[in-house]
Write a structure and sequence with these properties.
alpha/beta, Rossmann fold, 2 domains, six-stranded parallel sheet, 15% strand
């Protein structure tokens, strides 16, 4: 199989680091359950321009290096990689390619290819790679892929709750659920 996976929120437990730097920069604390939109500026009631200042601060302070893996993500992906192709497809900006590769190397994630889409929808990339299964946390991307016939495992987070039941879209709580779905890890 060709398995695609998002990075932030799926392999990398990014949300705690994002919230830490939001508090450090803006002095505003968000709990995980407060993050009810994929876009932090919506949760904070601030402009995109103000949120971009937070991201600039995050980059300047090497926030990407402070992110830890999601529990069991590396273990499961590495087992999946024995018999499947693994494509890490992230919405991160292209200028973060080296930082991202270094992070994947540091945590010894086995994958075949890394693609950074710079915030563009992932569906075309996923279709071009003949991906049959995708692991995601962003609802609109997950719904688009599921409608296109790709089986999507969607991490169940506060920021992706506004959906109707959809075939090919399976909610998962953790990597144990993903393992059970694939029956591998």
């Amino acid at each position: 199989m060709n398995i695609g996976t998002d990075l932030d929120g799926v392999i990398a437990d990014s949300d705690p680091a994002y919230r830490f730097f939001i508090k450090k920069f803006l002095g505003r604390e968000l709990k995980r359950e407060d993050v009810t939109s994929f876009f932090y500026e919506d949760c904070l009631g601030i402009s995109i321009e103000e949120m971009n200042k937070v991201w600039d601060f995050f980059n300047k302070e090497h926030g990407w290096d402070k992110i830890k893996p999601v529990n069991k993500a590396v273990e499961c992906l590495n087992k999946f990689a024995i018999k499947n192709k693994i494509f890490v497809i992230s919405s991160r900006p292209v200028f973060l390619e080296k930082v991202t590769k270094d992070w994947l190397d540091r945590y010894k994630v086995n994958y075949d290819k890394l693609i950074l889409t710079d915030g563009q929808p992932k569906l075309n990339v996923v279709k071009d790679l003949n991906i049959t299964h995708f692991i995601e946390d962003r609802l609109d991307y997950a719904q688009d892929m599921a409608k296109a016939g790709i089986k999507v495992l969607l991490f169940d987070y506060p920021w992706n709750q506004h959906s109707e039941k959809q075939s090919n879209l399976f909610r998962v709580e953790n990597w144990d659920d993903i393992n059970e779905f694939f029956g591998t890890c």
